[in-house]
């Protein structure tokens, strides 16, 4: 399975890197391919290292203005013209999407895939890994959107909220096996 992971390139505390390493190990041990932003810094590096060290493949999609942060020695690397093309390529190459902790770029990527799902333009499973309650506020906002009629589909059809990395992989395995 090609698993796209949207996440931060920042250097983060163990609160965030520990679950990232666990998810990376599970992806790698499962023989899956990590599809990610291609950076070799911060949390992106942590996940790429873990996937690679545990037997998984690496498929990066970076963008011209970040080429100095690109990881070398990957199985596949594409350099997109701009962020819009990068997002499109990441999603095109993925069978599933996992959203980990991140800033505005991660939030942009997350809402983009959810908007596509909302309108029926993709049926790829999307899991939001809510490490240390990082996305509690967003989860509450999504529920309010659903309750007040802003979502034409149930929230449960758009995104699955997981608290731990093993929940992420169990959901993806179950969802993709049902296809």
TrEMBL record:
Keywords: Cytokinin biosynthesis, Hydrolase
EC code: 3.2.2.n1
GO cellular component: cytosol
Top-level taxon: Bacteria
Gene Ontology BP term (one): cytokinin biosynthetic process
Family designation: Belongs to the LOG family.
PANTHER family: LOG FAMILY PROTEIN YJL055W (PTHR31223)
Listed name of the protein: Cytokinin riboside 5'-monophosphate phosphoribohydrolase
Natural source organism: Nonomuraea rhodomycinica
Phylogenetic lineage: Bacteria, Bacillati, Actinomycetota, Actinomycetes, Streptosporangiales
